[in-house]
């Protein structure tokens, strides 16, 4: 397992890594080049849901490679 951080929705992997002090500002200096690995890596977001609303969930803008179980 690689990097594990808490995530916020809405958000992005860059904002999640930054808020957890894994990376610095990606828009500062040449950090955009330094952090290219983020866009080239695979990321997994997970959340456990309990209760009746699981049947009624609607997902918008979900990646083309995802699974729900």
Protein described:
With 69 residues, this protein is mainly alpha-helical. Helices cover 23% and strands 0% of the residues. It has helices at residues 13-19, 31-34, 36-40. The longest helix is centred in the first third of the chain and has 7 residues, at 13-19. The mean pLDDT is 81. InterPro entries: Beta-mannosidase-like_N2 (IPR054593), Beta-mannosidase_GH2 (IPR050887), Galactose-bd-like_sf (IPR008979). One of its GO terms (biological process) is glycoprotein catabolic process. Pfam families: Glyco_hydro_2_N2 (PF22666).
Question: How far apart, in Å, are the first and last alpha carbons?
Answer: 20 Å
The total beta strand count reads: 0
Strand coverage percent: under 5%
- Unreliable stretches (pLDDT < 50, length at least 5) are none
Q: How much is the average pLDDT?
A: 81
**Helix/strand order, N-terminal first:** HHH
Sheet with the most strands? Answer: none
Radius of gyration equals: 15 Å
Secondary-structure-based class equals mainly alpha
Helical content band: 10-25%
Total of helices: 3
What's the overall geometry? elongated
Notable traits:
69 residues, mainly alpha, Beta-mannosidase-like_N2, Beta-mannosidase-like galactose-binding domain-containing protein, 3 helices
